[in-house]
Amino acid sequence: MPEGHSIHRLARQFTDVFGGQRVRVSSPQGRFTAGAALLDGREVVGASAHGKQLFVHFGPDGAHHLRVHLGLYGAFDFGGDEHFAGASSIGAPRRIGEREVAGCTPDDGEPAYAGPPPPVGAVRMRMVSDHGWADLRGASACEVLSTEEMRAVRAKLGPDPLAADALVPGAAGRADPEDAAPSSSAGEFARRLGATRTMIGTVLMDQARVAGVGNIYRAEALFRGGIDPWLSANRLAPEQVDALWCDLVALLRAGVRDGRIVTTDEADRPDPASAIWPEQAHYVYQRAGQRCRRCPQTVAVTEVSGRKLYWCPGCQG
DNA sequence: TCTGGATGTCAAC
DNA sequence: TTGACCTCCAGAC
Q: What range(s) does the Formamidopyrimidine-DNA glycosylase catalytic domain occupy (predicted)?
């Protein structure tokens, strides 16, 4: 699934292209018919993300919120006129690599926008404005919530490294020791890690402890921190927790900026001149059996809770 | 044409 | 811990 960075990009895209507009909402597949009827004809106020959860907020009373979780297979496709700048597809990779599919503009020779094409495949939800459209396929969740219900969903989630306050100075005792102001995000991360003996490799995938991290960021952040995935979360040193949080913030922010997950530092890419995607983008993820980029060891893989965990026994021992 | 796999989550056992 | 959910694509046959 797209990890947290993709959902934040989606929220931005929804706000940019649907914000302030009255939209038509339908469910060509038929599995979201009742929800679509609740939203059809309403104005999109904006969109937000918390971890891997996308919320699209509707007016005029602000009491209707569309919640979408893409799950493992979900993806959005966008299309429209010049107001629809940005990615035209965000979500599951569909075997085309993690990178999103860039949108076309009229300058590319595309015909002028004349409404959405007939739905292809299982389109769970279609949203259409005067300028373009969005199709949702394969999501694990697509529902309409009241404000209270939305707050309840968010309350169950851990801190998001992409939250606005993620790097408040002094938040985790790092940036400025003189600043004792508690951080609602970094401090919460440290508190939730310190409260469990569960292995850190499992904790990072638990959305109630940290929201937005998935299998790639889990493996890559632990490698970059030199952290043994089997170490109990509450055994991590405070400076390790602090560094891990800061690295997650940096990695996910880069993912939002670039629209893809690249975790390797330039010095660790054997051929910096070549395109780094996909061969050089990761340290350990999907590199089982290959030599570590930083030591002579071979990258290992083990199944943990049904998901593949990649790590380097040399760097993370 | 069939099968396996994928950046996820939840309920049942 | 396991299986269901659910969609698409690449590779095997």
A: 2-91
C-alpha–C-alpha distance, residues A247 and A289, integer Å: 26
Task: Strand C: list protein residues with Cβ under 7 Å.
Answer: A 29, 31, 71-73, 92, 94-96, 121-122, 124, 137-138, 140, 305-306
pLDDT digits (tens, 9 = 90+) for A202-247: 999 999 999 999 999 999 999 999 999 999 999 999 999 999 999 9
Checking if the pLDDT of A44 tops 60, the result is yes
Q: Based on C-alpha coordinates, what's the Rg of chain A?
A: 21
Our measurement of the distance from residue A155's CA atom to the centroid of its chain's CA atoms, rounded to an integer in Å, reads 18
Q: Mean pLDDT over all residues of chain A? A: 86
Question: Domains, chain A, ranges and CATH?
Answer: 4-155 (3.20.190.10), 186-311 (1.10.8.50)
Q: At what angle do helices A238-258 and A186-194 cross, to 10 degrees?
A: 130
pLDDT digits (tens, 9 = 90+) for A150-195: 999 999 999 999 999 898 754 444 444 344 455 689 999 999 999 9
Structure tokens at A309: 């965990």
Nucleotide nearest to A122 (CA to C1'): C7
